[in-house]
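The records we work with from here on pair a chain with its fold. Taken together, the C-alpha cells spell out the fold as the letters spell out the chain. To see the layout at work, look at the sequence and C-alpha cells printed below.
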Amino acid sequence: VKTPGFDDLVWIGELAVPFLADAIDQREDDLDSVSLLTNVITTIGGDEAAKFLDQVFPSKDVLFRRAVVKGMQHSVNLSREPLHARLVRFANDADAAIQVDVLDRMGSLLTDEECAPLLDDPDAAVRVKALATFRWRQLESPAAVASLERVIRQALASDRSQWSAATEVLGGPSILLTRPGVEVYLRILAEAADHPEWPTDWASSATTA
C-alpha cells in the first residue's frame, strides 16, 4: 500500500522529507501512517532520510520504531549509503523485537560481516533469525564462517525452532557453493554421527539443491 501522492512526493525528492518527518511527528500513534510515510522517506533516500532515521533511534517507543522499520523494508536505498549504515544500526538495536524485524524483513541486505555478530546475540530469537539469513549466503568471511559453524551446532542441539533454522541453512542452496561453506558442511556432517539426537534430513537435501 502506498501513501496517496507517493510518486509525486518521490519526484519532489529530498525537499519533501522534512515535511514528511513533521507529519510523522504529529501522528506517532498512528503506526500505519508512520510506516507509509517512512516508506516514502526511505524511497527518496539521501541525507535528509538518514537524518530522519537518526532522529528515530533515540525514541523509547518500541512500537513506533518497529513501524519505522516496517516502512523501510521496500526501499532500494537501504543497500547503499547513507541509509545502509542506519539499517545496520537498527539490526543492532537494544530491543530484540526491532532486531528480529530487521532480520526478518531486510536481513538479506546485511553483509556476512554485519550479520555474523548477531549469531552470538544474547536473545535466542535474534540468533535464529540471523542464522536463517545464511540460507542464501555464499560463505566467504572467516568471522562469519566461525560464528555460523558454532551457532549451527548449538541450534542442532536445541529445540525445534532453532534446529529448523540450522537445517534450512545446511540443506539450502548456498552452503555448498564456496569452499568455506563445504568445509563447514562436511565437519558438521561428520560430527552428526556422534549426535543421533540431531536432525539429519539436511544431509540429503543439500546434495540435491
Remarks:
- The mean pLDDT is 89.
- The radius of gyration is 20 Å.
- The first helix runs from residue 6 to 12.
